[in-house]
Design a protein that fits this description.
Structural class: mainly alpha
Distance between the termini: 73 Å
CATH architecture of the largest domain: Orthogonal Bundle
Largest sheet: 2 strands, antiparallel
Number of helices: 13
Strand order of the largest sheet: 1-2
Oligomer: single chain
CATH topology of the largest domain: hpI Integrase, Chain A
Helix content: 40-55%
Number of strands: 2
Strand content: under 5%
Shape: globular
């Protein structure tokens, strides 16, 4: 069994290894693909088939079963992506004679608009973390970093002290596929991080002896003196949001960063670089959000915005 999870066929195992080595897919992504393929192969096996001899009707039957089971459109789309990728790989490698997903029609998944918080709510959450104890310093630094840089939570908890050592107001983040990018910290995030790293902050949580290799270089620590995990960061963000009366998750701070920058005139390409989006199409979802806000504000404020076109002069 692979360290990443449940066993799959040798063909699928080779595909997952290729994704990890050649395409640099993240561990969480690989785990999701593996789960999809485990279920897919089980369905094929029940029909006496394997990925090497699957037919289009086998794939269609499986996708229909996912929908009938009440799977969300996003979950079905991800499963289809995993299955398509596997079969394309098998054909490219010469292990299968045909790709049963070539003519597969699964329907188009509508683009979901990111959820952004109003600026006032973000400010209320950030300003609500004002203590001088180590936990308050850490939490304020984490929140300011997530909102100030648009970092993913995995990028934030993966930070090493050396990623902040440039002294040029930039932080080095490692995104999906281990792609590296430098992003500006901003005054508030830089000040919060400096306070966390100062005497009485991070050092107060650091143990006399580090339990795991790499924890000594971690920027964010938990109360046990180990690197703060993704789950730990989620808990911090949710708790601080709840204290301010805001339903908050880390990705909402990332989305809010992008949306607020665009609303204040930032170029979409700049925001793409900041967030580490591979395609500008992903970033352009945020322009739809800001346009919707603009339209709502216009309709609410302009004296003639709500008049029928035929009555305008």
């Amino acid at each position: 069994m692979s360290a990443l999870g449940a066993p799959v066929s040798p063909a699928s195992e080779e595909y997952l290894s290729w994704l990890a080595v050649e395409r640099g897919r993240a561990t969480n992504t690989l785990a999701s693909y593996r789960r999809d393929l485990v279920h897919y192969e089980a369905a094929l096996s029940a029909q006496g088939r394997s990925p090497l001899d699957a037919r289009q009707e086998d794939v269609e039957r499986y996708v229909a079963r996912l929908r009938a089971a009440g799977q969300s459109a996003a979950s079905v789309a991800r499963a289809v992506s995993s299955i398509r990728g596997l079969h394309r790989f098998l054909v490219d490698e010469g292990d299968a004679a045909h790709d049963p997903t070539v003519d597969l029609e699964t329907g188009r998944l509508p683009a979901r608009l990111p959820k952004a918080l109003p600026e006032a709510e973000v400010g209320r959450v950030l300003d609500g973390v004002s203590g001088d104890d180590p936990i308050a310093r850490r939490d304020r630094a984490l929140l300011e970093l997530l909102y100030g840089t648009g970092a993913r939570v995995s990028e934030a908890v993966g930070l090493h002290l050396g990623d902040l050592a440039g002294g040029d107001g930039l932080v080095r983040l490692y995104g999906k596929g281990s792609k590296e990018r430098l992003v500006p910290l901003g005054t508030h995030a830089a000040r919060a991080l400096a306070r966390w790293l100062d005497v009485g902050g991070r050092d107060a949580l650091a143990p006399e002896r580090w339990r795991r290799k790499g924890d000594a270089e971690a920027v964010f620590l938990n109360t046990r003196g180990s690197r703060l995990t993704r789950q730990g960061a989620f808990a911090v963000v949710r708790a601080r949001g709840a204290a301010a009366g805001v339903d908050l998750a880390p990705h909402a701070l990332r989305h809010s960063c992008a949306t607020h920058m665009l609303a204040h005139g930032a170029d979409v390409r700049v925001v793409q670089e900041l967030l580490g989006h591979a395609s500008v199409t992903t970033t352009q979802l945020y322009t739809k959000v800001t346009n919707d806000h603009l339209r709502a504000a216009y309709d609410a404020a302009h004296p003639r915005a709500g008049e029928a076109a035929g009555t305008r002069r």
